[in-house]
Amino acid sequence: MPVISKKLLICLGIVLSSSVFASERSNESTATPVNAFKVSFADTLTPEDAKIMSLKASELINRRGRAALAEFSRLDSGFMVKDGFVFCMTLDGVMISHPIRPQLIGKNLAAYSRYGQPLFQAMMDKAVIEGEGWVEYKWPYPGTSELRQKLSYVVKNNEGFFCAVTAFK
User: CA 54, CA 67: separation in Å to the nearest integer?
Assistant: First the structure.
């Protein structure tokens, strides 16, 4: 892809993200906040932290079943740390838990391809084929338009779906 096209896509993504954020902000007075998870991106999760949190989430799901999903949105649960959080998806791509963007719950994201990468399909494949492991992709570093390497540690659980936690490399 020509450099000009990449720059155009990045700018378009920033503009669209900004407009979505602005419309969400205009509804704040009437919307009920989901959580108060605030983070300084100077304090980011390490890949090792992400792996540990993903494995803990899988263990909790294996012990408590789907009832454990509620824990991932609680600020005091240990599943929302620094800039990291647990999200969970079915093996066919439906988001079933996302504490930061609850509007994604129930949506099938299997075909979602951001920055030319079908990242959720790669996560589903990792969960189905290997059961757990790293998925790498490019994602804008918070506060910039710079694409950096991001990792998601994906773990399939006994309930038949997977959970993951992400970190920048």
Answer: 17
